[in-house]
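Researcher: For the record, we're logging two predictions in this thread. I'll number them. Prediction 1 follows.
Model: Prediction 1, sequence and structure:
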Amino acid sequence: MEAINIQQAVQKKYGELAAAVKSGDGSCCGPSCCSADDPITGNLYKKEETADLPKSAVDASLGCGNPTALINLREGDVVLDLGSGGGIDVLLSARRVGPTGQVYGLDMTDEMLELARDNQRKAGATNVEFLKGDIQAIPLPDNSVDVVISNCVINLAPDKSRVLNEAFRVLKPGGRFAVSDVIVRGEVSPALRRDMELWAGCIAGALREVDYTEKLGQAGFDAIDVETWRVYDSVAADGDGKFASAFIRARKPQV
């Protein structure tokens, strides 16, 4: 499949989701609609974490985990969220890094960026900046970020190696990588891999755990850990029990 077709399908899907959230019509993500019972997106955040966030940031939460819970963010850290969507993980990170820190959200979809910036204004977050761009070509300088996070987005990229190489490039020496993503365990059909609806739904583009680990190592990361935490039983016709959410952590070595 051509990368341009994948990106167009993803942009269309998430642009529609952002518009639905903004209009108050709700949202739908993955193979089913987002709710507490959704197999991918349900029950990812504690109520006390989201209680004072804008409702539209919570409604637009389309991830498969909570990357802000994977890592100890510190006062003054510079954080980058790859595929920041409506901004929930950016806003949560902004609280933790404090006024001396900075959080960047990177997204390629205009509707999501508009929604995220509106949520930033509602939250009064002054240490946040949302950038338009492709996670395969991050618009930040080398060695400029302490932490890279992402929530169920790297699987959407046509070229995962480029994403991981870019994450490595922008991290400072000793910088940390902490993402939630969907992985696949075992073989799935070529037809599933070609299904654009399932690409946009975070399924068809998922990597195997061994491939994720290998690509992180090839990018230069060490201290790589992949922890499966939620297995999906009914997300695709031939995918029962083969897809799961995973916490993926790694580090850029000190020079």
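Researcher: Logged. Prediction 2.
Model: Prediction 2, sequence and structure:
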Amino acid sequence: MTFDRAFADVIRACAKPRTGKVPLTWITPRIMAAYTEAFEAGHAHSFEVWNADGDLVGGGYGLAFGRMFATESQFSFEPNTSKIGFTVFNWHLARWGFVLNDGKHFTPTIDGMGFRAIPREAFTALCQNHGRMPHRIGRWSIVADLATVSAWKPEETPALRAAA
């Protein structure tokens, strides 16, 4: 697991067509360029999962704003790799004082990870209260090992995970 080490590779992997789905993506070259600019400015971040051979096999990226994060997309080339990376990533967000990770669409995967839907008014209030203060700008790195993260009880930080 790494953070912010292969941002361009992660966003390209997220843009690849999914098996069995329409071969279109919202992650166009223009979107990639905008997120890359945000990454270079220290506001967009990625998490990467590598296999034993050193291949990038899972990950995701998104945008930090204040003490909030918006996960934009994830990919997985091997089973459960994005879930592992997403869990490690959320552990760090919680420990760093983030109050919300917007998982976007409420899916079975994020439901199983303890995300909850919140009303737009609550999301707007969180944005007003926590979205404007600078927080952890720059490149991120992992500060905990997998054993520490695996002992995490996400219910200790229920406000972190939401889908608006």
